Structure formats: structure tokens, C-alpha cells
Amino acid sequence: MAGVVIDSLKFAADGGCITGKLALSSLPRLSDVLAGTAGCLVCELSGFRDTDNHDGKFGLHLRVTGRLDLWCQRCLAEVEFECVIDNHLLLMPPGAPESEWPEEELESDDYDAIPASRELSVQSLVEDEVLLALPIVPRHADCLPPVVLETEVGLSEPSPFAVLAGLKKH
Ligand SMILES: [Zn+2]
Fold first, then answer.
1. Domain total of the chain
2. What domain range is 161 assigned to?
3. Ligand 1 centroid to 143 CA: how many Å?
4. pLDDT tens for residues 98-156?
């Protein structure tokens, strides 16, 4: 699936479907925020036409699952995140006026809108969606912040000002 490029509208119109795996190490923007890049994402991308809503627009149905290791923002250790994505992405034709982008409506259901592209990198699409699905502040359900030892913050040392004050007295 790495390196696969599709003509998104044609893919959807043809009812295309591709499945495969993407190594985490092949996704540089995602790798940046991960605690480890071993493992992979299982992906399935299929085309559809929303005949009931959204003016019959074409879209892509993306499903991604995989286990990611993130950095806990509280204890600073690794924290596991089960990534499960099941998104419908409506393809907005080139030149579609902004008013046609049904943002308000989209927020209420599981639909998103992306610009249609003749050269859509499946790898980038998956990476974009996974980045959006990550928790903003990853952390364990139950953990404690790291203990800061007194010596590390210098509390046991006299401050330079206290030493100067002592000198002035003589
Ligand atoms: Zn933690």
C-alpha cells in the first residue's frame, strides 16, 4: 500500500477497494510523535457514492486499525493507544465553491470532506487521518507525574543571594 497513488474520484466512481498494511516507520510525520515505530497499520480504502445525502457526492471509506505507542504527557512514559479509524471522506470536486463544503452538517455525523485529487497518495491520506485521530494529550488512565527530587531543583543548596546577604553583615 506504500507508494500507492489513486485518482480519487475515479477510484470512488469505479467502486475501488484496496487493502494492505503500512509500516509505521514509513510514515515520517506520524513517527515523529511515536515512542516506537515497530509495527504497522492495517488499512482498507474503498470508494462509494453517497446516494442518500450530500448531493450524491463520491467519497472514500477509510478504515485503519493499529497499536501505537505514544508518550504519556503526565508520567512521560510510553502509553499504548489503540487506533481505530472508520471515516467517510466526501470528495469535493476541484473548484467547488466553499459554500458547498458542508462543514456544519459534517460535524454532526461521521463524514469529513477532503478535496478530490487526481494523484492522492494513500499513504499520506492514512497518515493525515491517523494524526487527526490521536489524543491531543495522550496519557495513562491512572498514573502519577514523575517525582522531582529536592536536590534536582536546588532546594538544599543556599541561594547565591543568601550567601551575599551573609557576606554583607561582616
Ligand atoms: Zn502516564
1. 1
2. 5-168
3. 5
4. 666 666 555 546 788 899 999 999 999 999 999 999 999 999 999 999 887 665 555 55
